[in-house]
Amino acid sequence: MSSISVTILHGFLGSGKTTMLRNILQQASDKGMSPSVIVNDMSELDVDGVLISSMDMVNKHQGNFVTVSGDSISSPDGIKQLEKSLDTLCENEKTNWIVIETSGSSHPLPLVEFFNKRQGFILKDVITLVDAIWLRDDYRQGTQLIPKWQENVSKGIRGLENLLVEQIMFSNQVLLTKTEKLTADEVQTIAQSIHPLNVYAEIIKTSWGNLDVNTLNKEQSYNFFLVEQLITELRETVNDPLYLSGKKGQKLVAKVIKDDRPFHPQRLWNTCHDFLTKGVFRSKGFFWFPSRDDLALLWSQANGNVGLEVTGFWRASVINDESQKFTDEHRQVLQDKIDSVESRFGDRRCRLTVIGQVNEVDEFIAALEKCFLTDKEIEKWKNGGLFEDPWPQNIAKLKYS
Q: HSE of 26 in the Cβ direction (CA atoms, 13 Å)?
């Protein structure tokens, strides 16, 4: 049996890994390629896994998709889950290329070390996605990233900057994401600022998650020799807790909101303005509004930016739609799926993960929970009442900053 190629996608929370992976899979499908996928989500909710498995080309039933959720794939337990995931994918005789999307807090070192020793696999690419907007806004177009990292090292602090810098150091490709929102001069400054961290890595600007799939899985393999010294120096610290925003006792946490009620559109709008802080690094999940109760909406927030995307229709909203011309058998299948969901409103429900500093996460979750409809408002919705909705209408992909 020939060795299986491996591509690893790294990047801090909200850098665009899932968008990039979806793009890669679509291109691969168009070209007749068939990569298998492992998606890692530090939250138990596994939103990224749901988004990827909703694509036609990969899912568990085809034997080419596995999720590792509830932990970082770089942790000791995560490595054990990775081993099991690889065994599962290798049961499929067609597996010849595996793409791994890591969680935002994962470190490349344990994975690089794992594949350096693991027979039967060839590590091709360790790719780090870097949010160019984050570097522009928080690190003066990237010029302050290295000085801040050096300051952390001198103080014995392991901060976010350490993780981002080390992700870049272990890469053989660095992708600057979200560059469609930056000027050419800003992109150039950012690229020049991070280049000294890894002079061997190619730095590529990307827009809207676009990357030519032909740049992946090429003949040349990952050069382990270049990171031998790094592995020796960092091995004992990569899974240490991160020191966040100069605040003592802060940890990176992932907490989940589960409710069957919809969000009040106006209250959610106000909460985004009033309660999103730099300590809330990422939130994502699925929810619904009473003002557009047929639509299943995807919430995706990174730092101060919130995106809403229509992912489909709730089954409860379409099952009685006569224009769909469902057969009795099809209608029963839909009803069984609706009944399998624990919700008072058919299959409608809200499931969100919030990731960040523990106190800011708790404050944001408390604010979000106040956005759910009250019992009186639910009755208003049932009776056809209207709700103020400041979010853009009639757009498939919505953006709010």
A: 13
Q: pLDDT tens-digit profile of 88-129?
A: 999 998 999 999 999 998 999 999 999 999 999 999 999 999
Select 252-400's CATH number: 3.40.109.10, 1.10.10.60, 3.40.50.300, 3.30.1220.10. 3.30.1220.10
Strands (E), 56-120: 65-69, 97-101
Tens of pLDDT, residue by residue over 295-343, are 999 999 987 788 888 888 999 999 988 888 888 898 999 999 999 999 9
Ranges of each domain in the chain: 4-234, 252-400
Can you name the residues that pair with 122 across neighbouring β-strands?
Answer: 5
Determine phi and psi for 172, rounding to 5 degrees. Answer: -110, -5
Which tens digit of pLDDT belongs to each residue from 190-217?
999 999 999 999 999 999 889 999 989 8
Other beta carbons less than 10 A from residue 75's beta carbon: 18
Query: In sequence order, which residues have a C-beta less than 8 Å from that of residue 366 and are 6 or more positions away?
Result: none
4-234: CATH number:
3.40.50.300
Rounded distance between C-alpha atoms, residue 194 and residue 33, angstroms: 33
Exposure on the CB side of residue 83, measured as CA atoms within 13 A: 11
Calculate the CA dihedral of residues 311, 268, 178, 69 and round it to 10 degrees: -60
Confidence band, pLDDT 50/70/90 cuts, at residue 395: low
Angle between helical axes of 184-194 and 145-155 (0-180°, round to 10)? 30
Residue 39, helix vs strand vs coil: strand
- The Cα 360–Cα 371 span in angstroms is 17
